[in-house]
Specification:
Blueprint lengths: L1 E12 L6 E3 L2 E3 L4 E2 L7 H14 L4 H4 L12 H14 L2 E11 L9 H12 L6 E6 L5 H4 L3 E12 L3
Parallel strand pairs: 5-6
Antiparallel strand pairs: 1-4, 1-7, 2-3, 5-7
Bound molecules: magnesium ion.
Magnesium ion (MG) binds next to strand 1 and helix 1.
């Protein structure tokens, strides 16, 4: 088995046309995150964790932010790329543990929807998805709600198990 961790941060921006995407789910009523892609901080941390577990670099290498073809890219594409790399190495997702970091928005109302979506995207059971949220107790940029962070850990198992 292989273990990987991923970490990502994005800044909030005011752009009414841009939705906040977290774990592939649109969260209404919040500022969006700035990024070259759709800035889904959760899927980026998760994809980096999977690539890390495979020893396959990071998502910035695979999806450079100076490549205009990746502008506003749906981060499901990035996650699919990472899971495909795992499959090529004979590995599948065992379980994931994810922590969103920030003051707002509150994720509790969307938690179940995000977990359902992650289970669907990763083709695992619901109890293989850990999803938590924490604040920084108002410390620092995240504490001033200038953006969101996400930490993800993933365990990969042999495909044959
Ligand atoms: Mg990112």
């Amino acid at each position: 088995m292989r273990i990987g961790q991923g970490l990502d941060f994005h800044i909030f921006i005011e752009d009414e046309r841009r939705p906040l995407m977290i774990g592939g789910v649109e969260i209404p009523g919040s500022l969006a995150l700035k990024g070259h892609s759709d800035a889904d901080v959760l899927l980026h941390a998760l994809a980096d964790a999977i690539l890390g577990a495979c020893g396959q670099g990071d998502i910035g290498q695979a999806f450079p932010d100076n490549d205009q073809s990746y502008k506003d890219l749906d981060s499901n594409v990035i996650l699919s790329y990472a899971t495909r790399k795992a499959e090529e190495k004979g590995l599948k997702i065992g379980n994931i543990d994810v922590t969103l970091i920030g003051e707002k928005p509150k994720f509790a109302p969307y938690r179940e929807t995000i977990v359902d979506n992650l289970a669907r995207l990763l083709k695992v059971n619901l109890d293989c998805i850990g999803l938590k949220a924490t604040t920084t107790e108002k410390m620092g940029a995240l504490g001033r709600a200038e953006g969101l962070g996400c930490s993800a850990i993933v365990l990969l198992l042999p495909l044959t198990e």
